[in-house]
What does this fold into?
Amino acid sequence: MPGNAELPPKTRGLTAIAGAMSLIAVLLIVQIWLLSAALEVFLAGKRNSALPAAIFSGLMFLICFGLYLFVDRVDSDVRNSGGE
Amino acid sequence: MNWLRRSSSEPLWKEEFSIRTADERYVTRRQLTKFLVLTSFGMFVGNLWILLRSLFYKTTAYPQQRVARLGEIPVGGVKLFTYPTQNDHCILVRIAEHEHVSYSQKCTHLSCAVYYSQESNRLECPCHKGFFSIADGSVLQGPPSRPLPRIVLERRGDELIAVDVKVS
It folds into this structure.
């Protein structure tokens, strides 16, 4: 088993991107659940859970956006390195 | 904004329409990531919308409307009416000699019309077998997660007047 440093840049990049995408997918599932739960509570006439739900959803979006920037940077770096 | 600058030396169109299969994998994964992040933003906007609706929620003043006369329906009988608008269908049930209850007829699951089952003394939704308590409109069984909105009734003389809608 070669260490991470010995792997070709594209393989390392692909692994990093796949990892980041998995994290984004997990966060997205949590966000979808949060939205449906917040909507359900809102329709039930309770108004006090909307603020924490919006804050957590915003935090998760920021994490997703950060991961996207990471993916973009890794992607550009790997293609600039030109190595297989 | 240095972290937003593209570090690739290739023009954007060459990056996005690469002729090499290995590069294409990167492009498609980056596009998928973009799509996922955009969806995440959509979820956040949805939560913001709920927050704004909660902050600027106005309590509606419901009209007073005559629903039925006291002896109009027998014990165990029902009467359908609309309240507060013509599009809001409601059901009035006489559950005892001197007791009437009224709920919105719209199931809180997928808005099918609920009906009163006299044998089991509950409100039932025929679409997905959601059952509601006749006493308070709470969910007894099935997919609905919220109770039926209750129509507040007032007795004035020998008439029942709808005066308010209580959600949850």
Remarks:
- The first helix of chain A runs from residue 9 to 43.
- Residues 6 and 12 of chain A are 9 Å apart (CA to CA).
